[in-house]
Amino acid sequence: MLNFARPSSLLWGLCGGLIGLTGLSAQAQAPAQTDWPKAKPVTLLVAFAPGASTDIVARNLTQKLSELTGGNFVVENKGGAGGNIASAQVKRAAPDGYTLLVHSVAFAVNPSLYADAGYDALKDFVPVALGPKTPNIFTVNPSVSAKTLPELVEAAKKSPLSYASSGIGTTTHLSMERLKTAAKVDIVHVPYQPAAAINAVVAGHTPIASTSMPPAVPMIKAGKIKALAVTSATRSPLLPDVPSITEYGYKEFDDYTWFGFFAPAGTPPAVVEKLNAALNRAMESPEVVEKFALLGMASTRNSTADFGNFLRAEVPKWSAVVKSSGAKAD
Question: Of 14, 157, 297, 320, whose CA is between 20 and 30 Å from 1?
């Protein structure tokens, strides 16, 4: 006959202790999510140097995010390797909502551009929110005689020219490479750090630049460079006198530089939703909308799912462009 002994009081005590610890653990996690972002400063780790378009986006949002959430948002720049250094750092960060990656479209490009970018764009991060986007723009130093894009193409056929971009594999680089292929011209690529590319054409180090609009617009309005075309299918409201590339017969051009916010994989959904809501509200505030508009950027409200779907389309799109252009970063 089997004898089922009653558990000892010690065993019951241990079980009760484990249950209590589990309850305490759950209680400890819940307030951490509920109290976000007031436990400590939230670091927006920008993948490029100060002055780059990505940096401009982040810095225009920090004060508004602090006002909306009661937290403290700070920007930290971690440039290098086309943004891969910052991506790797955030990938390894605690998934608690206190370290976010602010990146450009290069986030979607780099996994196909580098032999080892150090991250998987679709697995290692949670897409929090899509920020503003801006067309790329082709500009020239005032000393260049070409006043239109066709005139520049003809000049490139007659004598060697070079252009500055915001870095190997950026959409600013790939947009010009697409133009070179379509126009059957050879213009030498000179990659710069994003914040420095526009200064190269202003100083005359290169006669041409292909950049996003934010760093270019102030220089265009100051007369320091000439704008020849934007890479979107339609003209930019900010520069209505600058033709779109499609007006010159180049089809299927609708290239943008976009900016996005990412959290490490495993970040609690409740925190991600709070981040998304705060970012959308910040980007919809009149003062931020005005600041972005002055730089040729615009954003639209989007959910984390919307951004995830967008990213799943962008990664293969730019992978195909990288492959066809032959671009490689290493």
Answer: 14
